[in-house]
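USER:
Class, as today's exercise, take the chain set out below, and explain how the chain folds.
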Amino acid sequence: MDRPPLNAAALRRALVRDGSLYREVDVVQRTGSTNSDLVARGAAGTAGEGTVLVAEEQTAGKGRLDRRWSAPARSGLFFSVLLRPAEVPVARWGWLPLLTGVAVASGLARAAGVDTALKWPNDLLVTVEGEERKAGGILAERAGEDGVVVGVGINVTLRADELPVPQAGSLALAGAVGTDRDPLLRAVLRALEEWYGRWRAAGGDPAACGLQEAYAAGCATLGRVVRAELPGDRAIVGEAVAVDGDGRLVIATEAGVREPVGAGDIVHLRPA
C-alpha cells in the first residue's frame, strides 16, 4: 500500500508509559481539525495533559492567520497535543510553538534524515531541488484557563502534483531516507516530551533550558533581510538579527532601529 495507516496500538505502547508526558494517544480516520477537537476537550476538562489526537485526514486543518491546511489522507502527520504547563508563568507560554518547532525539526532530522529549518514563527522548511519549501507548520491555541493545544501538520509523502501551492514541499520530495509515519511521529513526540520537560523544569526560562539557543541555531530567518507584515497594514523591512527572550523576532532596519515583532507574517527577501 502506498500510504499505510498509522498503527494506533503500537504508538500507544511506545509512548504511553509510567513517567511519560503522554497519557492518551488517539488516532481518528477523519476530522475537521485536531486542534479544534482537542481545544474543545481541554476547555471542557475532558482531556488531560499529554493527550495526543492524530488524524489520518483533516478536512478543515488550520494554519496561522486563519489559513487552511489540506492534504490527501495518510499523506502526512496531522496531530495535536494538550499541554498544561502549570509551573510556567503565562507570559512565557508564547515559547511553546517555538519549542515545538525545535522538537519537530530535531525529531524529523533523526528519523527522516532530512535537513530541516525553522522559519519564524514556526514554519518547517526543507530544500527541494535547491529551493526552500514549506513542508510543515505549527499552531498553538489556548484551551481553557490552564491549557495550550499545540498542533502540527507535516507533509510526508506528498508528490509534486499533489502540492497545494508551488511553494510547498514534503519530506519525500526533500529526499527523506524514511517516510514511514509511525517512527516519524514517535521521534517527533519524544523530542517534544524532552524539550517540554526541560523548559518546564526551568520555569519556562528559554535561555536556562537551552531553548533560545537551539531555536536560533535552527532558524532560517535569522541573518536574512525580511519583510514583516504586521497587523494594521504596517510593514517593516530589515535584517532579522535575533530572537529575544520573549520569543519575538528582532528586526534591524536601515534607520538603525531594532524592532521586536511578536506577531505577523514574515517574508524572506533574500538569503543570508
